[in-house]
What we know:
Elements: E1 3-5, H1 7-15, H2 20-25, H3 34-39, H4 51-57, H5 63-74, E2 79-81, H6 85-93, E3 98-99, H7 101-110, H8 117-126, H9 134-143
Parallel strand pairs: 1-2, 2-3
Helix pairs in contact: 4-5
Amino acid sequence: MIAVANASVLIGLSAIDRLALLLARFPGGSRPGAHAVRGAPWIRRQAAGNPGWVRLLRTELDEGEAETIVLASELSAGVVLLDERDARRLAERIGLRVLGTVGILVWARRVGQIASLRVELDALAGRGRFRLSQVLRDRALREVGEA
């Protein structure tokens, strides 16, 4: 399955030493975790092929999110990895399947790749400086029975 990811998801998972979860889930900077992302041999950087569409999406999103959505559409990706709410909504509106950092961690907890979602979310907020609403945190913890 092709997964197209925005840097925020890669950097967030890398910051808590969980970047390999993407490899388990989808076979085939100066911020915390950026070095590990750059050094992962199974991650390939690729630009979107339609700069006009990227410019159009830039009216609502930042450049990275716009490029990610356009590339995911161009590649008919099985999933696009995004965290920012507006980007996720736009991607879903055009028919893309969306998953974020928290969704990856929820999956990892369900399949036994991690022992505690709560511990990982705490690390993500601390070491990863990841902003997570209390509503999303509580919902994720309920989904895996850690509420």
